[in-house]
Amino acid sequence: MAKTLFEKIWDAHVVKPESTADGDGAPAIIYIDLHLVHEVTSPQAFSELERRGLKVRCPERCLVTIDHSTPTLPPDANGERPYVTEQAHQQVETLYRNCEKYGLKLHGWDSPHRGIVHVMGPEMGATQPGMTIVCGDSHTATHGAFGALAFGIGTTEVGHVMATQCLLQRKPNTLGIRVDGELRPGVTAKDVILHIIGEIGVGGGTGSVIEYHGSTIRALDMEGRMTLCNMSIECGARAGMVAPDETTFEYLKGRPMAPQGEDWDRAVEAWKALPTDEGARFDREVVIDAADIQPSVTWGTNPGMVIDIRSAVPQRDDAAAREAFDYMQLRPGHPLAGEHVDVVFIGSCTNSRLSDLRAAASILRDRQIAEGTRVLIVPGSEATKQAAEAEGLHEVFLAAGAEWREAGCSMCIGMNGDIAQEGELVVSTSNRNFKGRQGRGARTVLASPLTAAASAVTGKVTDPREFLTEPMEGAA
Ligand SMILES: CC(C)[C@H](C(=O)O)[C@@H](O)C(=O)O
Ligand code: SF4
User: Fold this and answer.
1) Three-class SS string for 84-96?
2) Residue in 374, 385, 432 with CA at minimum distance from that of residue 408
3) Residue 57 CB contacts under 8 Å (≥ 6 apart), including other chains
4) What is the Cα–Cα distance from 150 to 349, expressed in whole angstroms?
5) 324 within a domain of the structure (yes/no)
6) Residue 42 to residues 65, 124, 381, 397: CA-CA distances in angstroms?
């Protein structure tokens, strides 16, 4: 029978199928290949292990790091890290202690790989096609870019996976999102996913595993595919995935945790069998034309409130829109482009990889950031930071007047103290624009790294095509 990518991975990992015998049916038990762990959602799970006197079943299947509560400013003269609160400090210290106690390798401050868990997993080659991957973190969907089934779990489940390497799950349904055609100049993977969420809405993927396919998706590099899959959760999907292909294999080859030698050849053979079979059906399908996608931004307080950057904020009069207009201090029918920008944040597991930093640098090179705008650029991992510095990107950023920080989640969520002030407008390459996400009263506009960099230069929400040297195809 023809199967989808999702079905192949699901079937290969079922330890015990869902029982439908008793009406409700017990969920399936599935095996987990890789468990990503960070300091925020692990403490209770470790406490539970301790309470029950259990061990971590497969320490070698855990990839552990610190990312959310970590300061992005360097240590002081005494080597002290500037933690925002003692609680943030303790969260990190607790993970150090738990890793020691349970025999887990922690990519802590001294690791050259440390970073946002969704950036470092792929970078290390830990994320591989065909795997089941979980993390106590909603943006685990990022790893689906490799043709893995990757999704976020709750803290209780983090404990289950630690103890058993298995998880109870109901089989989700599938949603195919096909995007065909060439992207217009200045349009990036971030614009594709913002456009998709704008089209299908924040509930458009609820309960589903999305497979992104079509010629536009095939043409994306791995970092673009990660950006795309990363935001799947923002339309309510359980996971997002892209079938593996040569682009995937080329990215993974030679990475520290990827298979080597003959194992590599065997792995690639197996991975080639993963893509959705001809004739396999998704439960639902959405089709998008790449030509319809423009640089996109959010205007409201959820990631589905999206407009083409040249459009006016919609003339909506429903309760959600009114609340959003009020919080965002925007008026329906007026353009968002041209609004004063207080802060630009380039970072997060959506857009903090080398290609994102290069995109930002392509606009910031030999330019200055507008007066009255603060720009924070935070690489996703220590390895990304090193790679960016090796090609001099940090010099471009510093010369433009931006701040160049240590790797971590930073202002995506502000748990480490990197926040915007009340009322400030932030153009942010992250994935959530909820009220207060980037600081109490801070107003978030989600955008691509190109749009963020263009807005940094002008100090206003700006169409990045104003900075492109190529002809502005489609621009009115
Ligand atoms: C802190 C963590 C549990 C949370 C998540 O689940 O995604 C965070 O990463 C986020 O992006 O909101
Ligand atoms: S970068 Fe943001 S979205 Fe990603 S894991 Fe960290 S807080 Fe969550």
Assistant:
1) CCHHHHHHHHHHH
2) 385
3) 162, 163, 164, 165
4) 14
5) yes
6) 11, 21, 20, 35
ipTM: 0.99
Same domain, 307 and 218: no
Question: How many domains does the chain divide into?
Answer: 3
Does residue 476 belong to any structural domain of this protein? Answer: no
Name the binding residues. 349, 409, 412
- In short, whether 67's Cβ falls inside 6 Å of ligand 1 is no
> Are 232 and 144 within 8 A, CB to CB?
yes
In the predicted model, residues of the chain with pLDDT beneath 70 are 21-23, 470-476
Going by alpha carbons, the residue nearest to atom 2 of ligand 2 is 412
pLDDT at 275: 98
Question: Do 427 and 351 lie in a common domain?
Answer: yes
Q: Does 41 sit in the ligand 1 pocket, CB within 6 Å?
A: yes
Residue 218 lies in a domain: yes
| Assigned token pair, 38 | 């960070």
Closest alpha carbon to 90 in 124, 43, 45: 43
CATH number of the CATH domain containing 392: 3.30.499.10
Q: What are the pLDDT digits (tens) for 385-413?
A: 999 999 999 999 999 999 999 999 999 99
Q: In this structure, are 204 and 222 located in the same domain?
A: yes
Identify the pLDDT of residue 20. 75
Task: Report CA-CA distances (Å) from 192 to 161, 432, 463.
Answer: 33, 16, 15
pLDDT at 25: 81
Q: Which of 41, 114, 348 to mutate to test the pocket of ligand 2 (most atoms within 8 A of CB)?
A: 348
CA of 380 to the centre of ligand 1 (A): 15
Structure tokens at 266: 């065997």
Tell me the residue range of the domain where 207 lies: 173-291
Does 254 lie in the same domain as 322? no
Q: Establish if 473 belongs to a structural domain.
A: no
Closest listed ligand to the CA of 136: 1
Contact between 123 and 255 (Cβ < 8 Å): yes
**Cβ 409 under 6 angstroms from ligand 2:** yes
Q: Which of 237, 262, 291 is the last residue of a domain?
A: 291
